[in-house]
Structure formats: C-alpha cells, structure tokens
Design a protein that fits this description.
Length: about 130
C-alpha cells in the first residue's frame, strides 16, 4: 500500500530551524516528483517546494525561497524539508505529496495533480 508519512513538526521560535521528513512506501520512489505543501487554519493548501525525481531540480514558493531547502534520498525513499529562519507566517500543517512522472524539472504542480498525500505534521512558530 502506497503511503507517505511526515514527521519533524514541532513548536519552534522565530528565527529557528527544523527539518521535516517524509518517508514514502512508493515503488519505484524515483518515478515520482515530490512536493511539500502547507495549510494554515482558514486558508487553502499552498505549494511550498518540489523536487524532481533525480533531485537535480527544485522549485520553491517565493515566500520560502532562500530559507527552505528540499532534498531527497532515493536510496532511503525519503524527502526532506530543511526550514531555516522561520517566522510566524510559516505556522501551518505541512504535507508531503507525490506526483507520478519523471518530470524533466521540478514544478509547482496543483494539489489535484498529486496522487498520494501524507497525513501532515504541524509546525508552529512562536514570535
């Protein structure tokens, strides 16, 4: 059964760092573009970052560019989101998602274009 499981969310102070992890049971894992989305209370789910199947291409939302880094380890079927210099506007539930296809480059795909989703992990940034 294909599954995604996020972990690493916690309470962190503004300016701090944390790393989210998404463990995938997708096979073959390297046939998927992987993305991170987030959703704050009362808001729509929004794109954060994506990474191409081979890890050589990444894409970020403007709001996190220069602060977050997405990476993947295909040998471990895992994708990461390193979050640095966080601020209260980063508070949200963070979701890992997978879109089938070896896209030539990372893309900001729509929510509906992702086949698999995790349950989410909560990140709360205090000021």
């Amino acid at each position: 059964q294909e599954q995604l499981a996020e972990s690493g969310g916690r309470l962190v102070q503004a300016g701090g760092s944390l790393r989210l992890t998404c463990a995938a049971s997708l096979r073959p894992f390297d046939s998927y573009l992987m993305s991170w989305f987030r959703q704050a209370p009362g808001k729509e789910r929004e794109f954060v970052a994506s990474i191409a199947w081979n890890g050589r291409s990444t894409k970020y939302a403007d709001s996190v560019k220069g602060r977050f880094i997405i990476s993947r380890d295909n040998a471990k079927n895992t994708v990461y989101l390193q979050m640095d210099n966080v601020n209260p506007e980063d508070t949200a539930a963070y979701y890992c998602a997978a879109a089938g296809g070896r896209f030539g480059s990372a893309q900001a795909l729509r929510v509906s274009e992702h086949t698999y989703w995790g349950q989410g992990t909560q990140v709360t940034v205090s000021s």
